[in-house]
Design goal:
The protein is mainly beta and 469 residues long. 6% of the residues lie in helices and 39% in strands. Keywords: Selenium.
């Protein structure tokens, strides 16, 4: 039985034996600055009378949080343990709070505990981002900044049972210059973390003048010893690897390679362990700029803001938040990813926008807007979540409210959408499901910006597996 404990015994078991997803927890930021953010529970069971409806809204008790990413108290790395996956972790980008959400009643989650900014800041950290559960019975939450808005790469450690803070994770004086996302692979004694930017700068919006300054935007992958909890290697990707954001190891727990998407330079690097035990990286995907008129610069990058890998390690998916497309790559040969699926679902270069594409190495004409059931998809595809079996890809549209307001004001005015793509897992290919739409702007008192998505039972971006030997 693959589900004797939390999660599944292996990625393959999750893919072959896991149930079809029926509920989705969606982190939503309120467009009204006087209202608090919301965790929406969405019914995605096609046999339900509430299909594609928001069936529950859990409102945070404070305003100005900017809920962003989420994680679990326990996942497949603790498969042989008795604890239950019943607490969703919601760190806040703007307020530095952490909400612990009780999901034991799956359709009607509630707030279990709140860590205040004062409690978090006492450890010299702020701007919390990614959370993962550890096989040690702890929760690790990455931090991108210090309380004064300066940058640092660090982690907050929390007891998964008592939800009490245990302090910061890194041992020693050597700290990463920036922080963002992370993944771990105990078999290779490694935790890898990525970098965004200086919090007091990126929280104000995106300026192309900032990206040239390595003191403002990160360019490195940071490799820690899993056992020693020490920063061992800083791998600088250089001027072609600015803002390496989402970082994913292959799901195979013995794998010594993974991928990271660089937002500003719009490329994907493969990172891997060398024969001498060091880590190296190689660019394997490059999204070409489009030459445009009417935008902030004459060259528009794709801006890769999310990537994920299917549980069988066959496909990598990415979203280009400025260009407006989602891409599917076959990564069976990790050195040479092959583009096998692509679809445009919004973005900045639509044919009815004020931006004119002058030169495009890919498209012969600017894409048309997308409508589902009469609802226009504003903004651009951003966060991705894949079904366990790899056949359904869910997509939301919000990146970060200050940046949403800057690039897609109509999106903020009308609210986010969630759509579903059907996946050809044999040959590759993406097809929009014209009958699936979740509209986060339909209730005018709650026009919401939808970001990360989680299933109650775990998924391919929350769960990490350990080697069985």
């Amino acid at each position: 039985m693959s589900c004797s404990g939390p999660g599944y015994r292996s990625p393959r078991a999750a893919m072959l034996e896991g149930p079809r997803e029926k509920l989705m927890y969606v982190v939503c930021i309120h467009t009204d600055k006087n209202k608090s953010d919301i965790l929406c529970t969405v019914d995605i069971d096609p046999n339900s009378i509430d299909y594609c409806k928001i069936i529950h809204k859990l409102r945070m008790p404070h305003i100005g949080d900017e809920l962003h990413h989420s994680g679990w108290n326990i996942c497949s790395s603790c498969h042989n343990k008795q604890q239950k996956r019943d607490t969703l972790i919601l760190p806040c980008l703007m307020s530095d709070r952490v909400y612990f959400i009780d999901t034991s009643s799956e359709r009607t989650p509630s707030i279990k505990k709140v860590l205040s900014s004062i409690e978090v800041n006492q450890y010299g950290i702020s701007t919390l981002h990614t959370s993962h559960c550890l096989p040690t019975g702890e929760i690790l939450i990455s931090a991108m900044g210090k309380p004064n808005g300066d940058a640092i790469g660090e982690f907050l450690c929390v007891n998964a049972e008592t939800l009490e803070m245990k302090g910061t994770w890194t041992i020693g004086e050597k700290k990463a210059a920036f922080g963002y996302d992370f993944w771990y692979q105990p078999y290779h004694d490694v935790l890898v973390a990525s970098e965004w930017a200086l919090p007091r700068v990126f929280k104000k919006g995106y300026a192309t003048t900032d990206i040239a300054d390595p003191a403002i935007y990160g360019r490195s992958l940071n490799f820690y010893s899993w056992n020693e909890r020490k920063l061992k290697q800083v791998l600088n990707l250089g001027e072609d690897g600015i803002a390496p954001l989402e970082v994913r190891f292959l799901h195979n727990p013995k794998s010594s390679e993974g991928f990271v998407g660089c937002a500003v330079t719009s490329n994907v690097y493969k990172f891997y362990k060398t024969s001498n035990g060091e880590w190296a990286a190689k660019k394997v995907i490059q999204i070409l700029n489009k030459q445009v008129e009417g935008w902030i610069t004459p060259q528009m990058p794709g801006m890769i803001t999310d990537i994920l890998i299917s549980l069988d390690d066959k496909y990598l998916y990415l979203s280009n938040w400025l260009h407006g497309d989602i891409r599917q790559y076959n990564i069976s040969d990790t050195e040479r990813p092959k583009l096998v699926g692509q679809i445009f679902l919004g973005g900045s270069i639509l044919n009815d926008s004020k931006i004119r594409v002058i030169q495009d190495n890919e498209l012969t004409e600017q894409p048309a807007p997308t409508y589902i059931k009469g609802r226009r998809l504003y903004g651009s595809p951003q966060m991705l979540q894949l079904s366990l079996d790899g056949t359904r890809l869910y997509v939301t549209t919000s990146l970060f409210k200050p940046w949403d307001q800057q690039f897609y004001p109509e999106h903020v005015k009308n609210g986010s959408t969630m759509v579903k793509l059907d996946i050809d897992i044999r040959n590759g290919g993406l097809k929009l499901d014209e009958e699936f739409l979740v509209d986060f702007g339909i209730e005018k008192d709650d026009i919401l910006l939808a970001h990360e998505m989680r299933y109650p039972g775990g998924d391919c971006t929350s769960d990490i597996w350990l080697s069985e030997d």
